[in-house]
Fold each of these.
Amino acid sequence: MTDTRLDPFEHGLTGDAANSNSLPARFYTDPAVVALEREEIFFRSWIFVGHVSEVAEPGDYFTTSVFEQNIIVIRAEDGSIGAFYNVCRHRGHDLLCDSGHVNRIVCPYHAWIFDLDGTLVKVRNSDNVSGFSAAEHGLSTVGVEVTAGLVFVNLDLDAAPLAEQAAGLEAEIAAFVPEPEALVLAHTDSHIMKCNWKIPVENWSECYHCAIVHPPLAAEFIDFTTFRIELNPLYQRQRMKLRDEKTQAAAAANAHIDSDEQASWTVLPNLGIQIVHGGYIMTSQWRPVDADHCEFVENWYLPNAEPTEHQRELFRFRAENTQPEDVAVCEGVQRGLHSRGFGHGRLMVDAERTELSEHGSHHIQHWVATKLAGR
C-alpha cells in the first residue's frame, strides 16, 4: 500500500543545519506535495510578479498568475498599485490579457465596467434587478506590496505585510541601487526546467557547487572563496567579492558604488535577486509547473530600456554559461531523486558558514517543511 503521509521531518530533517538530513526525495517528486505547496506556500506567500515600471501610469496593467489563479496588477487613478483576480463578478469571464493600458476594465462578455480601483461602475439592466448592489460585486482583491521597486502579490489577505516579514531587505538593496523604482524592464529570458522548483532555489542559495559547476564565472567575475550567507526569517543575503578587474569596471560605470561586493538575495519561496554592478537588478524566479518541472524566468531591470553592448554581453554570458550550467545540475538532481537508491542526503554545513557550507539550502528546506507541516 502506498504511504500517503507527508511528514517532512520523519527522516532526520531538523532545525539544526549542522546536524540535519536533507528534505526527503519524495518532497521533490510527489504530485501530492505540489498540491500541498500550492495551498500552504504559494497561496499564502508574497510572490514576485513584476516591477513598478510595468505599471508606470494610471491605467497601465499587466496580468500574471500564481498557479492557475490569474491576476491583474494595475495602476489606479490615485497612483496606487492594485491587484485583483482576473475574473468578472458576473459570470466568471476573464477580463484582461497580457499587458497594456485601459481607462476602465470592461468585461468582454456582457460589458460590465469596473473602475481602475476595482469598483463596479456600470451594469446594464441592473436597475431592474431586485436587490442588486454594485458595491457587492466589485473585483475581488489580492494583496499587493512594493519592495525596492519590485511588485509582490499575496492571495492571503490576512498575511503579515511583506515589509514586516522581510524587514531590512529594501534598505539592503537600496545600498547598491538607491532608486530601484526608476529602473525599467529591459530583458527577459525564460524556459522550462526539468526539475522541481525547490532544486534551483536551493542551488541559488549555496556555493558548494560554484567552483565545480561555474569555472568561467569563478575565473572572470567572482571570488567564490569569499561567499557568505546571512539568514533572515523570509530571506537570505549572499555576499561575495568581485574580482579586481570587474570592480574597476563597475566603479567606472557607477560613481555611487564604492564596494567590491557582489550582492544577491533569496526571497522565499522562489525568488532570487542579484545586483549587477553597473547599478541594475536581475531577478531569477522558479515557478512550479508540476513535481518534475518549473518555469525559469530571468528579468533584467536597467536604467534604460535599450541595453548597452556591455549589458548585452552580460545577458549572453548568463545565457551561454551560468544558466545552462545550473540547468544541467538541477535536472541531474531531479533524475537522481527518482532513484530507489536515494531517500535523503546529509547537508554539508561548517561552523564558519563558508562557501562550502549548505546552511542556505537547509534554511529553504526547513522553511518549506515547516509550512507543509503546519508548524
Note: The chain has two domains: 47-154, 177-373.
Amino acid sequence: MSKVYFWNLRTTRKSPHALKMKKLLKQSGLNAIIDPGNLVALKVHFGESGNTGYLNALNLRPIVDFLKKAGAKPYFTDTSTLYVGERGESVSHGLLAARHGYDPNVIGAPVMFADGLRGEYETTIPYDGKYISEAHIGGMFMETDMMVTLNHVKGHGLAGYGGAIKNIGMGCASKKGKMHIHVSTAPHLHPEKCTGCGVCITECAAKALDLDDDGKIIMGGKCTGCGRCFLSCRYGAISIDWKSDVEVFTKRLIEYNKAILDHLKRPAMHINFLMNITPDCDCHGYSDAPVCPDLGVMISSDPVAVDQAALDMINAAPPLYPSRLPDGLSQGDDKFKALAPDTPDSFGLRYAEEIGLGSRNYKLVTI
C-alpha cells in the first residue's frame, strides 16, 4: 500500500502557506532522496494563452526553496505541443511561461525546455508493452538527476482526467512521442487543399511525402509519425484524427509513463494540486468554472496512488454549480465520468496497476 501525504490548504498566521508546504514535503521524505548538486526537473504545465486555471507559480516557490535548501538545483520544465500555437516552440513557450508568472526572478528557478528549440531534441527508449515498443521523450529528462512532477488536477476532453499520469506521459513526450500516443497511423492527407508548396516534404524526416503529377501531396514512403508535416502545413492539407480510440490512447499514455519512470536516474515524486479543479485541460485557451471546491495538495512517490487519491477526494466533495457538471449530481458521484462518459472505467488506473506503474491502494496521511 502506497502512502499519499495530504495538506488540506488550511493555514494560520503562525503556520502560513510556505511552512505548511515545507512540512508536507519533509514528511514525504523528498529531502532524503536528494543529493547536493542534483539537477531537479520540476515538470509543470505552464498553461495555454488565455487559460487561468494553471498552477499559480507563487504557490510553487516554497517547493523551489525547499529543494535549494536540500542542496539541489531545481528548474521548471515542459515540452512543446504537437498542435500549432504559442507552446509549439520554446521561444514563444518561454515568453508565455514568464507572462504566467514563471519568471526566475520571481520563483527562484529557471525555465528550460526538455525537448529543445522546436520539440525535436528527444531520446528514444525501449519498452516491451502491449501498445508501444518504444517511447520518444524530451532528451533532457534522461539527463536530469531527478524529476518532481507538479500536477494540476482537472478534467480532460480525451483522457477524462488529468493528473500525475497525464502530466508525465504526454507532458514528457517529444512531438514525435505525442504523435505516437495520439495516433497509431499516419496523418490524413487532403490533396484538394494542397497548394503544392512542398514545405511539408522538406520537413518530413522520413522522406515519406511527395507530390503527384498534379502537384498534390501524396504518401510516397513509410511515415514515422514525427508530426512535422502536420505542423508545417498552413493550408489544412494534412490533419490528425485526435479522436482516436480512447481506450487505446489511454493505455498508450500509461505505457509511456512506465517507460519514462523506469528509465529515470532515480525515483520521481509526484505532487497533485487539487485547486481550480476545472473540467478541461490547461491546453485550452480558457478555464471554465470549477466542478468542486479546492481540496488540497497531495504528494507521493506512486503516480497511480496519488491520482487515485485525488479522484476519490474529488468525487467525495460536493459538486459546484453553476458549472459544466450535469444537473443532479451528488457527493460521491463520479464528476469526471459524468463530463466524459466515453472514457474507460477508472480512467486507465486499473491498467496502470496491472503493468506495475503503481498501486490504487493507498494510505492517506494528513499533516
Note: The CA atoms of residues 200 and 351 lie 37 Å apart.
